[in-house]
Amino acid sequence: MTQPASSPTDHLLDELQWRGLIHQSTDETGLAELLASGQQSIYIGFDPTATSLHVGGLMQLMMLRRFQRAGHRPIALVGGATGMIGDPSGKSEERNLLSAEQLQRNVDGVAAQMRRFLDFDGEAGFTGSNGALLLNNFDWMQGYSYLEFLRDVGKNFPIGAMMGKESVRSRINSDAGLSYTEFSYMLLQAYDFVHLSREHGCRIQAGGSDQWGNITAGIDLGRRMTGEQLFGLTAPLLTTSDGKKMGKTERGAIWLDAERTSPYAFYQYWVHVNDEDVMRCIAYLTEIEKAEYDELAERTEQAAGERAAQKRLAQWMTELVHGDEGLASAERATKILFGGDIGNTPDNELQEIFADVPSQDITADQIEGEGLWIIEALQLAGLCSSGGDARRSVKENSISLNSVRIGDEQKRITRDDFAGRTVIVLRRGKRKYALLKLSSDASPK
RNA sequence: GGGGGUUUGCCCGAGUGGUUAAAGGGGGCGGACUGUAAAUCCGCUGGCUAUGCCUACACAGGUUCGAAUCCUGUAGCCCCCA
Question: In CATH terms, are A8-237 and A347-438 the same topology?
C-alpha cells in the first residue's frame, strides 16, 4: 500500500478498492492483468427511462469517468433497444413499454448530460485515443431479425441457467409474474456485450450489483459465440443507511437536469445527506482524494455539527453537474436563505438568488386597496394546498414574509410589503420558499 | 353456478344506532432540541373569506327523531363447495 503505484491502471484499481467500488468481479487477477496490459474499453449500460438521468446513474457515470482518467476508453451504452423491453432485475413488476419516439427523446437527453462526465472527443488533455463512445444498442438490434437472433443468440442460452438467475427466480413465482418479453431481456443485454467485444474490442462490462446476472450472462455468451474471455465488475448500490435508494426524496428523484431539479435543490440534497451516509457518498461519487477523504471523515467524527463533509460533497457534486455558475448560485442562495435577513437585500439580488425558487406573478391591482389576502397568496405561491392548509400554517406560526413571521391570518399583502421592490419572499417552515413577483406589465407607481 | 366473508380518511387499521370529521399507527406538514443532520418530544393533518356551513366511512336506495354502524340492490376483493 505504501508503494507508489507505477501506472494509472494500478492507481485505478487501488482507488476503486479504497472507495469500496468493487462489489463483485470476475477473475480479479485476470482483470488486473488485462488492465495493466494496455488501454482497454469498458462499457456500462444506461436505461433511457426519462429525458434526464438522476442521481441513481451517477455511480455508473463516475465509474466510466474513473476509467477514462486512468487512460481507458469508456463506452456509454444507452439502451434504445433494451429500453423497449425493460430490465426485470430488481423490479417487482413489469414496466410499461415506452414508445419509440419517447425513447429517442430520452436517449438524446441522457446523451447530452453525459458530456459533463466523459470526454467524448479527446480534448481536455486526452489524446483522443481514449475518447468516450456513446452507442445505442437500437442501432444494431433494430435490423436483427427474430429468427436470426434465436439461431445466433438464443441457441446459446440454456434455460436452466436462465432460470437460475436471481432476477428471474424472484419474479417468476410472484404475483406480478414475468412475461416472455422481460424474460428475454437478458439475451439482449448479453448480446450487447458480445457485439461490443467484436466491434469495439470491449472486454469489460461494469454496472450496479443488480446487473451481475446480466453481465455474467454476457460473459457466458461471449465464451460460446466468440471464445473470448470477457470480464465483469459490479459496484455496490448506493443506498442510505436505512436501506433506501439514494437520490430519492418524498418529492421524487433528484435529477441532473437543471430544469427538473434546480442547482440549488441539487446542492441542498447533498447538504442534507446523513452523517452515516456522507462519507460513502464521497467515496462512491466524487474524485476527492484519499487524504482529503480521511480528513473529512475525521472532522465528521470530531465535529459533526460543522457538516464539513456534506458541504464538500454538495460543492463537488454541484460543480460537476451544474458547473461553476450553478454552484455559485446555489451557494449564494444558501447563504441568504439560511443566514441572512431578506429585509435589506436589493431587488435585483433577490431575483437572482431566488431564480431557482418557484415564483408566481401577481398584478399590481391585486395588491391595491385591500391587498392580497395571505391565505390566498400562500395557495397562489404553491406553499399551501388549500385554504385550510394555509390557515393552519399561519396559526402554526410557520409562515414568514420577507423573513418576518406572519401570525395573523387576516394579514393582507399590500404595496407596503414590497417596500419598493418587485418581489416578495414567502417562506413556510425552515426551508420552503416561494416568490411573488409583481408582473412587469403592471406599471409600478 | 351455490354458500360465507370483506370494502372505512394519503396508507394500514378500530368502530358500541346518538358530540364520529370518525380511536390507534404510518406517512406528510409545522414546532422544540441540535447541526439546514439522525434520534426524541409536542402540535396539526376533508373542503369552505369559517365561533358557522358543506361533503365524507365502495355505489344506489330504504328503515329511523337520528346510520360508518340495521335492511335491500349493484360493483370490487377473498375463501369454501360444484
Answer: no
Q: Give the nearest nucleotide to A305, CA to C1'.
A: B35
Query: Could you read off the pLDDT of A107-134 as tens digits, one per residue?
Result: 889 988 998 899 887 555 545 578 888 9
What pLDDT band is residue A75 in, cutting at 50, 70 and 90? very high
Write out the three cell numbers for A107.
436517449
What's the CA A91/C1' B25 distance, rounded, in angstroms?
A: 28
Q: Which long-range contacts (CB under 8 A, 24 or more apart) does A247-255 make?
A: A247/A54, A247/A55, A247/A56, A247/A58, A253/A54, A253/A55, A253/A56, A254/A54, A254/A55, A255/A50, A255/A52, A255/A53, A255/A54, A255/A55
Strand B positions with any atom < 7 Å from protein CB?
27-31, 34-38, 43-50
**Residues A347-438, CATH architecture:** Roll (3.10)
CATH code of the domain made up of A8-237 = 3.40.50.620
**What is the predicted pLDDT for the residue at A294?**
94
Per-residue pLDDT tens digits for A134-144: 999 989 998 99
User: Cell numbers 470477457 label which residue?
Assistant: A230
pLDDT at A2: 41
Taking the domains of chain A in order of start, what are their residue ranges?
Answer: 8-237, 253-338, 347-438
Which residues does strand B reach (CB under 7 angstroms)? A 250, 268, 271-275, 304-305, 307, 310, 334, 338, 373, 375-376, 385-389, 391-393, 396-398, 428-432
pLDDT at residue A445, as a whole number: 38
Alpha-carbon torsion angle A74, A79, A80, A85, nearest 10 = 170
- pLDDT > 70: percent of chain A: 89
Annotation-wise, does A40 bind a ligand? Answer: no
CA of A173 to C1' of B5 (A): 27
Residue A191 marked in a binding site = no
Q: Kindly state the cell numbers that stand for A286.
A: 466524487
pLDDT single digits (tens) A81-95: 887 777 776 665 566
Closest C1' nucleotide to A384's CA: B29
Q: Which residues pair with A272 in a beta bridge?
A: none
Cα torsion through A347, A353, A356, A358, rounded to 10: -40
ipTM: 0.83
**Which superfamily is assigned to A253-338 in CATH?**
Tyrosyl-Transfer RNA Synthetase (1.10.240.10)
Calculate the average pLDDT of chain A.
85
Give yes or no for residue A350 having a pLDDT over 90.
no
